[in-house]
Structures
1.
Amino acid sequence: MELAPLTILLGANNSGKSSILEALFLGPNPFREAPYIPSYYAVMAVHSIHKTLESEGYAFLLYNYTADEAHIEYDGYTLKFLRSDGEILVTTNKEAGQSRQTTIRGQGTTIHNVIGVLYDSQLEPIGLERKLITDDSLLISPNLAKEGLAYMRYRWASIMNMRVCRKIAKDASQFSRDEYDDVTIEPFLGGKLAMYVYMSDGRRIRLGDLGEGIQNYIGARILFEVQRPKILLWDDIESHLNPRILVGIGEWLSDLVDQDIQVILTTHSLEAAKVIVGLNEKAEIIVASLSEGVLEAKKIKSADLEKLVEAGVDIRVAESII
Amino acid sequence: MKLYPLAPTSRTAINMFGISRRLKLGVATTKPDALEGLVIVSDGTPDDVVVSVISYHVNGKTTVGVVKPLETRGLGAIQLIPTYLRPGIRKIMLLTDQDEKTLEAMREEALQRLGTVGAQVVREVDEGRLKVWECVHGARGFQFIVAISGIDEFGTAKHSIEDHLLKAAMTFNVGGIQWCLDVRGDSKEEWMSIAPHHLEVFGLLRGSYKSVCEVFPQQVKGLKCVSGEDNPRDDVS
């Protein structure tokens, strides 16, 4: 799959879109710190997305939970997950990590470039290498919003000193009749910490009271500034967004592309795809679908998308004719 | 003048946000400020892009709403005026192609349609391709401005916004367009034939208020009227 400077992965539920983003998020190193809960490894953030009730562990990274190995490959780089004696060893084809003696399918062997170890049924991994191996990526997901806030609280002093919150607040004003001057975390209501936006008239509004679209926008902008990745991944871009904020986010993403930051999004929404691809000439739509566990991807032009919609064809469910 | 599309994910809105971003016009907005008036882009594209470029040169202080009716085009959009007449909307501009009609026939049709929706005309200013009617609808007064796209120097049977765009391309010497359109010509086809140069033409229009006024006189006047601004931006050469 060839990804454009701005790629929109469009497809129905369970079509493999999110897996692509998660793979690209893990790629640079699953054991680097990600801006989701202090000291969280990137792989733990992906774990949070998949966690159901009390289940823990990383077997979900392997096909049907039982496969012996999984690979993430791009630009000549490979990251492997190898099952071995109840562990999942994570190795790469780049010089990194350590060599490790282990047993695979009953045979003793030495695995090189092991950068960490995951477990089938345990949350805490062992990170042996935490530096970036390829360009950094950041995953924005509605399923990680709370974890992102927790991280911002922990890093708030350094976030404030980055002096970006005022600009982000001003930019968020474009979606509202109100004017926002700044974003802050402080004790205000009941003496408990919360995140607020300062209004130009001096009032404060708790971020949680602004509506999820603006919360998502402000949260994503801050996390992006914290991380400054070369690749931005955004899962379910349309989630909680009204049309105004969708356009605003589309414009921001286009600005990032102009700064040579690659952006890859997923959406179920034809409207979101049309808006974002219409705002940037470098944007491309890829329709994704799964066929017996194999991802199928088809690049489609914006004009063709509109023609199919006008013709009564919903490409999210019309894999057979495209 | 800021443009606030009332359907921000529509094709018209996307075109406006897109050209605004590409040419750094800063005219398309998502901020729901009070609206000075409403612009009906009844024929869609490229009218929406033209409105964006002209708006860059017109009064930066006010915001007007923009709509593209889904099912009607041309003067047919007049039937939607009662829907658009909301408290605070006192100026409505309709941008439409002349097509093959005469200006007098268009005037008659507009007046007839205004009557059909219950709008009474109390004053009329007719400048050919720019018509301004002071109207009353129920207890509400409003100004209705119609800018009709087309250039007489083009001898084509149908006139449209593309007449103006071709004139712009000729003015800037872009795309090798010759002044040879006669009654058999089609300015839409001619304009499409220089598609790779469209952005260049719009960019040159962004840089020259003088050219914009020469190429789009009725549209500029109409948009200035709906924006409430008499004077154009004075910081643009």
2.
Amino acid sequence: MAKSNSEVRKRTPAPSRVGADEKSATGVLDEESTESSQPQAPAVDRQTVKAAQKSRIADLDRDTLINIYHQMLLVRRFEEKSAEIYSAGKIGGFCHLYIGQEAVAIGAISAIRKDDYVLASYREHAHALAKGMTADSLMAELYGKATGCSKGKGGSMHMFSKELNFLGGHAIVAGQIPLATGVAFASKYKGTDQVTLCFFGEAAVNQGAFHESLNMAQLWKLPCIYICENNQYGMGTSLQRAMSYQDISEKACAYEIASEFVDGMDVLAVREATMRAVERARKDYLPTLLEVRTYRFMGHSMSDPGNYRTRAEIEKYQERDPVKLFATSLKEEGVVSEEEFQKMDAEIRKQVEQAVKFAEESPLPAPEELYTDVYANPIEPGARN
Amino acid sequence: MAVITIREALNQALREEMLRDENIFLMGEEVAAYQGAYKVTKGLLDELGDKRVIDTPITELGFAGLGVGAAMVGLRPIIEFMTFNFSILATDQIINSAAKMLYMSGGQFNIPIVFRGPGGSAYQVSSQHSQALESWFAYFPGLKVVMPSTPADAKGLLKASIRDDDPVVFIEQERMYGFKGEVPDDPEFVIPLGVGEIKREGGDATIVARSLTVPIALKAAEALEKDGVSCEVIDPRTIRPLDIDLIVNSVKKTNRLVVVEESHPFCGVGSEISMQVTERAFDYLDAPVKRVSGVDVPMPYAKNLEDLAIPTVDRVVAAVREVSYL
């Protein structure tokens, strides 16, 4: 179990962190990181992850498991389609895909309530879908259509749903971290038990906003769960080239925040770690930092040629493809049959095709929309004096 | 009507609004236990408690962003910068989050927040603690920018800013906290944003001033009156949205315009006013628009150099005489 804040020892970082010392609690850890304080890329074999995953499957009901898998596959197919339409020139701007990281958003968001809050970075299609936003409204946003979740004004990086408490897509690295801290502040101020999940990449950890936020969150005991999706590359710069001390979960010790290191290729490990953090947040208004080790199979964005990493490295991680891994575990445990998988995949593909159709047939924003939504209380010159 | 200082007027506005709406909280460095670095928040901790009046670490980007996040889910934060010099650290959250959230969310998330504190020149605190930043914030659609010059305006405009559903950058002036003036007692005394005021009527030349330069412009107008030049002094009070109609109508009457400001001249609010007047009243101008700005150097420490860097009554008088061909 993760240690509560009161058990975190000052100036002795290692014991506060679940993972390096208590591997079994949160899934599988990078073997090398237990020997060195500067962990390299995880070297966990597929069989080890599967064994851990299967032990968790036994604790969950079938509907939950199927729902989690369904969401992961929806994200995978949605992102594959996004890449396809981007390459075809049907959508513009930046498009940062989530393929390879599905277990993180889906696992974590499966551990919270509908009225809890989620904020994410510009790589947020998955988080929006997991929070219940429709593929139609996301695809229409990518197409810059009036029916998009942000009326075509936000695009890939700025998806929002007030109704579903999905508080965006934010495109300045680490910008969402102080915002999420404020959302958690508001929950405590109002006396609700809503928690906030804040997702960001490991490159955001080098920004001051990360450190300022963690300090305030623990100082004021705010129910915010900081989820660092460590995909090991900030655009084209590897973690090793960008961070002097690379054990991100240990950085929480500087703020006496509870933290865990989680295998981000195992959706159920992410879910379990998040559930522990949610309990701390809901019951005691305490923050948590989760470092979730993952990997993006695609480039940083669609325009990334990917020269900074080898094909062999990508293939090594693809062996632990989180969607395929979970599918295999579910099949081997007899939760879902091959036939059911095929049927689900066909339905999801249809749903994504339908989203494309919806987006393509939707109207463009009216030209007068250019000037709306700048102010909630606009002051027109004629209204004065 | 009571005669009070700008400091007291701001304090009253904060207190009255916070008593009216418990979703308002006040956060910043030294706002609570220390009673405010400039004592604007004096007594608020005792009266409203530490849940609502919150001392922060020195972490401007962090607490500005925290405020914006809290505003996304229904609170109405007032974020104090001890001085606006420190808001520079928080500009990512003010500009990229607060100003743009409503637009990029397609109208879903408005940000009812006030960022306030003193700006402009102080007394001999050199370059990093003496600067006017209003043109930065006024540049961005999504923000409203307010700069009061009297106790009544300070109170009425701060109350309006707190009640507004958009992010408002409310820039006070460190040298002006002790300035006194009459303020209405009515707790519902609110001055709408976007409405300027003619501080002195006149027919020969228009002087547009804001914040600290309003009393300077008024003194210049008094001196010029003795020479037979009647100046109209306009304080737009809100920089964005700008009450350009008020300025243009005055210029159509006087045919001459001088803009007085503490900020650097290049890309300043004065440049914008000058351009808009040129666009809308070119044919009415009898002389080129003249700016009296803070000089185009970082603020020096030495008293004699500092005095040279800030607009003075003499410089305003000279500018008005120049546009009047006197």
